[in-house]
Amino acid sequence: MKGQTLAAKRPDETVAHAQRSIDFSQLASRWGTVAAAVIIFIAFALGTDRFVSLDNISNVLVQISVLMVISSGLTVAVASGEFDLSIGQAASLAGVLVAGMLVLAHQSVPVAIAVALLSGVAIGLINGLLVTVLRIPSLIATLAMGPIALGVNYAYTGGDSIYATMPDSFYAIAKGTVFGVVPMPIVIALVTVFVFYVLLNRTRLGRSVIATGANIQAARLSGIKVNRARVTALVLSAAGAALGGVMLTARLGTGQSGAGDAYLMDSLTAVFLGMTAFKPGRATIQGTLVGVVIIGMLDNGLNLIGAPFYLQNIVRGVVMVAAVGLAVLRGEIRFFR
């Protein structure tokens, strides 16, 4: 009788153990990337006292502010199921346009910024039309748009950087503070992240974008205007890149033709890292933010400990491959479905 009682309990214990294992797996899947960010922070904090200083943390946040803005826009495009490989050149074009409007055309700061942002909207709109009307895959359409934007860039500048003194109100974008404490780039980045987060998670447009990215056929059958969602997502992606280009020009104090090009790979890395956190397999603003912070900590921490400059790229690539590769093996991320 006693043996029967024990035997009767064993299946329940097995089920409970299996449930605990599943719960642990889900917990690791959702929060593993965040845990990795915490581990990286602790490792660098132990490696050098300067890493955890208030000045350095503020410096890291300022350094990643442009990447945060550009990556947030790209997240919207990826959430819709599209890729945007033109964001680097879109940022560069916006950067030289805002400088040109201020220095060469002698326009006011608001007008110059508006022209730069409109250039991003135009690039995103063209990308969207190529994808939805001509049915060119976004990977190809945006890859082609990059050189086009670069050509416009060089046609405008002649390949030269735009060096000149700009209005102090424009420099305030990069060097100003709010309440004399919080650097303006951090404020702009956080506001941008908040706007994109609300857009994706609290609006009908955001739900349409996410539904389109999850299953375009099901979204179409449910009455969602999927082409409108895709075009809008690509417009927002390029507009975010243009805003990042404006911020970059304010930081550098000059309009440089290729200043924003490098942000393409960094933004893709941040978005893909973010797709392994919180809601694995989905591009989310909060996930991208974690990815951006990881990139910023790696770059800053490696600099502080005196690592060779090329090691930053190697480590960043290894982290991306490890995180995304693991998610792909678990079936959480699938590309080119």
Automatic annotation (TrEMBL):
The chain crosses the membrane at residues 27-48, 60-79, 86-105, 111-131, 138-156, 176-200, 231-250, 285-303, 309-329. It is found in: Cell membrane. InterPro entries: ABC_transp_permease. The keyword Zinc-finger does not apply. Keywords: Cell inner membrane, Cell membrane, Membrane, Transmembrane, Transmembrane helix, Transport. Its main location: membrane. This is L-arabinose transporter permease. It is a multi-pass membrane protein. It holds the Pfam family BPD_transp_2. GO terms for cellular component: plasma membrane. GO terms for molecular function: transmembrane transporter activity. The keyword Membrane applies.
